[in-house]
Design brief:
Blueprint: E1 17-20, E2 30-33, E3 39-42, H1 44-52, H2 54-57, E4 62-63, H3 65-68, H4 74-90, E5 93-96
Parallel strand pairs: 1-4, 1-5
Antiparallel strand pairs: 2-3
Amino acid sequence: VQCELIVVPIDEVPLYDAMSYTWGAPDLARRIPMSDSTLLPVTAKVHAIIHERASFLRQRLVWIDAICIWQTNHVEKASQLNLMREIYQKSSRTIVWLGE
C-alpha cells in the first residue's frame, strides 16, 4: 500500500470517496508509506482501514479526516470542520467503516 496526499480546492475537487469511522485511540503508532518515500504517522484505526480495504480503495481518491485535516493546527482544523458537511455531500460515495 502506498498513498499520496493531494491538495484540491473544494470547488475543483475530482470524484472522491469520503470515509466515515470512529476514531479509536488517538496515538499515531502506525505508519503508511507515501509516494514521496516518507512515512505518514496514523492511528491504528486509519492504518487498519487502509490496509484491510486496500483492494477496495485501490487507485481511488479517498478523504479521511485524520489524514486530510491537519490535526495539530487548530485554525486549519476549525476551518476544515466547518467544511465537513460539504465534504461529505460532494463525495461520490461515503464509506462507513464499522470495524473488523
